[in-house]
Amino acid sequence: MQDLNCAQNLVFRAIDELNAELPPSEQVKKSLATVLLGEGGSVDSMGFLSLAMYLQKAVLDAYDVPIAIADESLLAGASPFHTVETLVQHLARLLQHAHCT
3-class SS at 77? Predict the structure, then answer.
């Protein structure tokens, strides 16, 4: 549970950073149900790259551990980037494997 709370805080921090660059009409809602990518997605490919960059920076700032949010192994199967909730779950797994918690 602590892993998910920590991951959610980091994802929301990254969303705040992304939203600071976007006009109000394009800002990403900080909700676990928010669709990020795919049908009805809140971000385009460039927006997602920015979000991933901000998220990696947030993890580095919080834990001094570099992580890769996306890699080739994620291309098969369900995307962990579909919603904010799936991104939080994905990040929690990465943090657990990086021994950040």
Answer: coil
Q: Which of 23-27, 29-33, 90-94, 97-101 has the lowest mean pLDDT?
A: 97-101
Using the CB atoms, write b or e for 77-92: b if 16+ within 10 Å: eeebbbbbbbbbbbbb
Closest to 32 measured CA to CA, from 69, 78, 87: 87
- Residue 45 belongs to a domain with what CATH number? 1.10.1200
81/37 Cα distance (integer angstroms): 6
Residues 42-100: pLDDT tens digits?
A: 999 899 999 999 999 999 999 898 888 876 655 556 788 999 999 999 999 988 866 55
What CA–CA distance (Å, rounded) separates 79 from 74? 7
**What is the extent of the structural domain holding 90?**
2-97
98 CB-near residues (< 8 Å, 6+ apart): 63, 65, 67
- Specify the number of domains making up the chain: 1
